[in-house]
Amino acid sequence: MSENHLTLNLKKGKTEFLLFGTAKRLGKESSSPINIKINGEHLNQTTQYKYLGVLLDHHLTLHEQVRTVYHKTSTRLKLLKRVRHNLTTYAAERVYLNMIQPIITYCPAVYLGLPTYLKEKLQSVQDRGKKIVLSKQTDVEWKSISEIINQKTLLDVHKAIQRASPPVFHEFFTFLNHGKNTRGDGCSLIVPRIKTEAGRKTFKFQGCKLFNELPKEMKTEKSIVRFKGKLKSL
Fold first, then answer.
1. What is the mean pLDDT of residues 151-179?
2. pTM of the predicted model, to two decimals?
3. CA-to-CA separations, 56 to 48, 82, 197, 213, in angstroms, rounded
C-alpha cells in the first residue's frame, strides 16, 4: 500500500483484527495479549466483525448474525402487519418475498451448519410472515427456511460445477468416475473426507451431500436456468 501511495484507515471499526477459535484456545491467548502496530498505531482487536454483510464472531457460532437478522426482519414484519389491511394478498406476499425473506436467506452457505435452535429462530420469522400475509388461508404451503437455504446452496453448487461462479469455487466439486457402470458414476460428487465437526458444516461438504441427494436428471442438467426451475418444483 505504501508503494502505491495508499492510506490504510486505522480507525476503530475500519481496520481491526479478529482471532477465531474455540473458547478454550482463545482463553489461552487472552493470557498474553497480541499487540499489532501499523506505522506506530495500535490495531484494535475485536470479537466480531461484519464482513460482506455477514456478522462473524470469534467462535464462528453465528449467534450474533442470527440475532441481528431476527431483529431486523421482526421490525419489518411489524411494519407489514400495520399496513396489511391496505394490501391484497398478492401485494403483501410480494413485499415479504422481496423485502424480508432475502434478509433471512442472504449468503445461505454460512447457515448450513447452524444448530437446530438457531434455524428455528429464523423459521419463526417465516412463520410470522406467512401468518401476516396469508391470514386465514391455511391451505397455502410455503417452503421452510431450511428448504430455501438448501435450494440456494444447490444453485451455488451447480454454478460452481458449470464454471459460472467465481474461480475460487471451480475446484470445490469433482464428479465421481471410477469406470464402473453404477447409478452414481459420472453424476454424483466426491464427498470430501472430513474429520472435524467444523468441516462437516462447510459449503464444500454440505454442498456435495445435498447435490448427491438430487434425482439423476437434475444432477446431469447443464442449463442453470432449467436447473433453477427444477429446484423450485422440488
1. 90
2. 0.82
3. 5, 33, 18, 30
